[in-house]
Design a protein that fits this description.
Helix content: under 10%
Number of helices: 0
Shape: globular
Largest sheet: 7 strands, mixed
Distance between the termini: 40 Å
């Protein structure tokens, strides 16, 4: 089992920044991928960003490219999502995602961007 603990959500005005963190613990092994999804009210959960354990090949949904940066500290099994130039449409619950043979999800952290 892998446990994911997220932090860093909150409220921010449009144009502002937030940084999300997600720490994995338990039966973690090298070679995993970690990332972020989000779900806005009334919408399906969507992919935001993902990165490999080595930090290579980050991928982003088009709507956040150039504004969000995903990084990983594999010594701490922690993934970060630096979010900048936030827009009201970024408002959602953000979920941490971990994959190594099996999917694991965090409990979610609310990000609210006001106009």
């Amino acid at each position: 089992q892998v446990q994911l603990v997220e932090s860093g959500g909150g409220w921010v005005q449009a144009g502002g920044s937030l940084r999300l963190s997600c720490a994995a613990s338990g039966r973690t092994f090298s070679g995993y991928n970690m990332g972020w999804f989000r779900q806005a009210p009334g919408k399906e959960r969507e992919f935001v960003a993902i990165i490999s354990w080595s930090g290579d090949n980050p991928h982003y949904v088009d709507s956040v490219k150039g504004r969000f940066t995903i990084t990983i500290d594999n010594a701490k099994n922690t993934v970060y999502l630096q979010m900048g130039s936030l827009k009201p449409e970024d408002t959602a619950v953000y979920y941490c995602y971990y994959y190594h043979n099996t999917d694991y999800w965090g409990q979610g952290t609310q990000v609210t961007v006001s106009s």
